[in-house]
Each structure stands twice: as structure tokens, then as C-alpha cells.
């Protein structure tokens, strides 16, 4: 299973064990920034398409070495929005031999919830699951074991990184402006009642949790189900704000290739916590690729 996202490409290979459960063989992510700079005219650059296609090709080769029976490849926000989507898909197909299925916003939100539900205990009372990526954020609203609705909004870390120059050290005023823009773009969420439980997934939430725990190397079992407090998010925003991307790369727990977008991602997470009126969130290490895997293969 390969997930071609706006900021990263993710791979999951699994075997079905004798008890019927799927056991991971490979589960990793590589940052390629497919959506870098596409706000200007809606096109994905040839360079971003090429490096993403090369990564997909490498993951396809790795999957074949594992003797997989099938490779499912999906694309999300950047490929949904790109005006040159067909050209990018052709580049990926030419280099990897794989046809990318671009899924809808509703499907992305639904699959994010499928992934979280598979590993977190059922929440009592109201809950919200959000997956903040490079190009969009998906939301699932529910109560107890029942899902009420899900939707997606075009709020992602790559967009605000490019718009506000958040890949480098910036003044506090710049961060304030970015957070105001994020809040404005999250209008569909504003006014929703505060949930009993907020669950965050995606690179921003997991990387901030890894930094909080100083995980080097990354340990998915410690990140899965961890609690990320609002004051820790604020502390990290201030830390990243004072650093350029190269300085951020040496922070224990931060995936080096996320150094450019982590400040924007942290701002999105903190803004969501404000909008939902919560002072902490539960973090899920599982993502869209896990949801697709469960949805397609059971």
C-alpha cells in the first residue's frame, strides 16, 4: 500500500498471520513535498513530480522484493487539486509502473477514521478524529461508536509554509498572522461543540509527540495513544519559530525531512485545539495507508 500525499509518500507492507491479523513488514514514510509551491498557479512542479515518482518507484521495487500479491496506490490533496494532475500521474506511472487512484475528500476522512478505530479503544461520548496533512485536513465526528459525519478542508502544512515562509526563523507576528489565516480557513470547524475526546493523526501530531518524548529513533508504539498537551504544542511552536530548517533537523524526535513544514503543522494542530476548546489530544500513529489497507484487504 503506497500513499502519495502532499508532503510525503508512505509505504505499508503486511503479512496476514495465522490468527487472521495483519502483521507489518514495512511501514515507513519519506518526505518528497509534492505540493511544494503549487499555490501560485495550481500546478505541481516537474521537480516535485520527479522526486515523488522516484520515491514511488523505489517503494514499488521494495514491495515486489517482498513478493506482495497486490500494490494499491492512492493519491490525496495535492493530486486532487493540481491543474496538471494527469501529467503528474503519467510521470509516476512511467517511472513506477503503478496507476495512482486519487481518492475523494470524503473517502480520505472516512479512511482516516477506519485507521484510528482499529487501534484506539472506543471513545465514550463525543469524539473528533482529525488527520492534518500537507495539503488538507480530514475530520470525522462521532458519538460513542457511531460516526455522525466526516469532511475535509484544504488546510495543510505545505500551503502555510509557502505562504508565510515558515521553513525559516520568523518573528512572532508572522506566526500570529499564519495562525489567523489557518483559523479563517478552518471556518467549517468553528462553532462545533467541543468533543469529549480529540484524536490527532498525521505527521505534525506524531512528530511533535516524538519531540516531546525525545524519541531517537522513532518508536511508533510509544507515540500510539500518547497525550499531547496544548502547552507542549505552544512550546514547540516557539522553538521552531526561532530556528531555520537546518537548525530544526538536529532536534531529537523530529524527522529531518519535516523540518520545513513542522512549524506550520504545529500551528494547525494548536489552532484546532483552540477551536474545539480542548487542552490536550490523543495521538494516533496510524494513517490513511492503514485505513486503506483495512478497507481493501480486511
Provide key terms for this protein.
Nucleotidyltransferase, domain 5, 298 residues, 11 strands, alpha/beta, 2 domains, 6-stranded mixed β-sheet, 5-stranded mixed β-sheet, 12 helices, globular
Question: Brief overview, please?
Answer:
The chain is 43% helix and 21% strand. By secondary structure, the protein is an alpha/beta fold.
Counting DSSP E segments of at least 2 residues, the number of strands comes to 11
The CATH topology of the largest domain corresponds to Nucleotidyltransferase, domain 5
- Oligomeric state of the chains in view: single chain
As a percent range, the share of strand residues is 15-25%
Compute the average pLDDT.
90
Low-confidence region ranges:
none
Structure description:
- The structure is a single chain.
- By secondary structure, the chain is an alpha/beta fold.
- The protein folds into two domains: 2-102, ATPase, nucleotide binding domain (Nucleotidyltransferase, domain 5, 2-Layer Sandwich), CATH 3.30.420.40; 105-287, Exopolyphosphatase. Domain 2 (Nucleotidyltransferase, domain 5).
- Helix content is 43%, strand content 21%.
- The protein has twelve helices and eleven strands.
- The chain has helices spanning 46-65, 77-81, 85-96, 105-117, 157-164, 172-185, 203-212, 220-223, 230-241, 245-248, 262-276, 288-297; strands spanning 2-4, 8-16, 22-31, 73-75, 101-102, 126-132, 137-143, 146-153, 197-201, 227-229, 280-284.
- A six-stranded mixed beta sheet has the order 8-7-6-9-11-10, with helices on both faces. Strands 3-2-1-4-5 form a five-stranded mixed beta sheet, sandwiched between helices.
- Helix 4 (105-117) packs across helix 12 (288-297).
- The longest helix has 20 residues, at 46-65.
- The chain is globular.
- The mean pLDDT is 90.
Amino acid at each position: 500500500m503506497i500513499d502519495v500525499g502532499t508532503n510525503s509518500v508512505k509505504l505499508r507492507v503486511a503479512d496476514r498471520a495465522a490468527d487472521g491479523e495483519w502483521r507489518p513488514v514495512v511501514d515507513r514514510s519519506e518526505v518528497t513535498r509534492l505540493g511544494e509551491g503549487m499555490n501560485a498557479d495550481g500546478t505541481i512542479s516537474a521537480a516535485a513530480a520527479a522526486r515523488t515518482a522516484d520515491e514511488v518507484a523505489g517503494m514499488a521495487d521494495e514491495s515486489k522484493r517482498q513478493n506482495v500479491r497486490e500494490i494499491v496506490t492512492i493519491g490525496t490533496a495535492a493530486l486532487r487539486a493540481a491543474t496538471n494532475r494527469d501529467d503528474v500521474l503519467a510521470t509516476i506511472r512511467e517511472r513506477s509502473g503503478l496507476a495512482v487512484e486519487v481518492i475523494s475528500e470524503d473517502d480520505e476522512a472516512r479512511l482516516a477514521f477506519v485507521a484510528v478505530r482499529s487501534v484506539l479503544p472506543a471513545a465514550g461520548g463525543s469524539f473528533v478524529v482529525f488527520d492534518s496533512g500537507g495539503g488538507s485536513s480530514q475530520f470525522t465526528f462521532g458519538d460513542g461508536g457511531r460516526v455522525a459525519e466526516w469532511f475535509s478542508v484544504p488546510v495543510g502544512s505545505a500551503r502555510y509554509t509557502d505562504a508565510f515562509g515558515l521553513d525559516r526563523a520568523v518573528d512572532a507576528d508572522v506566526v500570529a498572522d499564519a495562525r489567523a489565516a489557518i483559523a479563517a480557513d478552518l471556518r467549517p470547524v468553528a462553532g462545533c461543540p467541543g468533543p469529549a475526546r480529540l484524536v490527532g493523526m498525521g505527521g505534525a501530531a506524531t512528530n511533535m509527540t516524538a519531540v516531546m518524548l525525545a524519541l531517537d529513533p522513532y518508536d511508533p508504539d510509544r507515540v500510539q495513544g500518547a497525550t499531547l498537551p496544548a502547552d507542549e504544542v505552544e512550546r514547540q511552536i516557539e522553538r521552531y519559530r526561532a530556528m531555520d530548517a537546518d537548525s530544526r533537523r538536529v532536534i531529537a524526535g523530529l524527522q529531518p525531512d519535516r523540518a520545513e513544514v513542522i512549524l506550520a503543522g504545529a500551528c494547525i494542530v494548536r489552532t484546532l485545539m483552540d477551536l474545539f476548546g480542548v487542552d490536550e489530544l490523543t495521538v494516533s500513529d496510524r494513517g490513511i495507508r492503514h485505513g486503506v489497507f483495512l478497507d481493501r484487504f480486511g
